[in-house]
Amino acid sequence: MFKNIRQLTPFSLMLLTISFIMSISQSTMTTAYPILMQSFNVGATTVQWLTTGFMVAMTLVMPLSPWLLDNINLRPLLNSIVAVFLVGTAIAMLSTNFLGIIIGRLLEGMAVGALFPTFQSVIMENTTKEQRGLTMGVVGLVMGSALAVGPIISGVVLQWVSWRALFALFFFALLIVVIAFQHVIKNTHPMQQSNFDWLSATTLIGFGGILYAIASLPSTGFNLNWWLILIVSILLLIVFVVRQQKQSHPFLNLTVFNYQGFLPGLLLTGISYSGLIIATVLMPLFYQRVFYLSPLWSGLLMVPAAIFLSQLNPRAGRLLNQIGLKKLVYIGMSMMIIGYALLAVAGTTSWFYGLVAAMLLEGGNAFVMMPSVTAANNALPKNLVSHGTALITTMRQVIGASSVVVATILITYFNEHVSIGHSLVQTSGWFIIVPVVGLLLATRLKNHSQD
């Protein structure tokens, strides 16, 4: 693993380090929910906006990343992204009311939404197709590990220190990194100046609206306001799609869908991300609600899965060139099916089965997510890589958020009839459908989709 990381350029390492620090912020808040609910006297529905708002802000900004890359040099662009994140983190850290934390999280989400597709595009553009599998395996290691270790870090910090220390950790770590590595930032992306299309930017609210509708469904249900938000959001996206096809320099060049192999890669990325994010949702509930373990121990029990993921990601990247995406997807989706099945059959028997299941779910992700991203972008010419990456990261968020909502609905529904343990078991059983769909989709792939 470390040998693979050493092969990257200093600039790529800096991008990965910044991304790792900012990525952790996605999954740390859930562990702090009970403490924040008590500190600010807010309910569960309100406190969830720390995650929901973050995801909506991410999704709104992601489609803008190709324009940002084409019109702003990398040094000021990256420094601006980091600055927005630092400002948001400082606001949340110092806030004396819950609204301040929400505002801080929205700014963090905007920064992460701009960074994710940007740094992946830059790394991919500066890597040959032969090396992309290995390089994106390392990227997957960083992103997947960050999501997996978020609850671990928050569990350890909250065991002994205030929730404000979580924000302070992100703030100072990121500040040190960005100052120390200013000299390695290079403007490697060619500029293609174009005017900012405000109408297209406005219609992008549709992405955020759909994500908001998905995330708010468990608390609001199918009421009139929910349907209005969903319909208006879909109409805005239709306007966005039509306008992109008429623009000479669109925010998102939708011709990427004309290239064979792109769409399957996009869908497989979202499906595999679903398995990873559901593992981070289900497993703490199993550990804390079924086996009554502390947040600290529930976080520590996620460590083996995170290590397993970090070990497999670079190997999966190397295997992409050797055996092709199709066989990797078969391996990864089979691991996820076994993981969900183990939870469904023996999830309440012992926490050890949960540990093994988490390793299978996260390990399966390593064989699918970043290899699929690589294969999808390998199908595109270099000038469309940033557009393809932006679409993939945006849809990955939508699919991931949808999975969390479905899991929440299933757990709540089953818990009305059975114990929390059995509701988690039944939810795990239903989620076997997701990797089964992934297997069926893999049958449509060529043996070597990365060619």
From TrEMBL:
Record keywords, A-Z: Membrane, Transmembrane, Transmembrane helix, Transport
Annotated membrane topology: Multi-pass membrane protein
Source organism, top-level taxon: Bacteria
Compartments where located: Cell membrane
Domain Major facilitator superfamily (MFS) profile, first and last residues per copy: 11-446
Pfam families (alphabetical): MFS_1
Full protein name: MFS transporter
Chain segments annotated as transmembrane: 48-69, 81-103, 138-160, 166-185, 197-218, 224-242, 262-284, 290-308, 328-346, 352-376, 397-414, 420-442
Chief location category: membrane
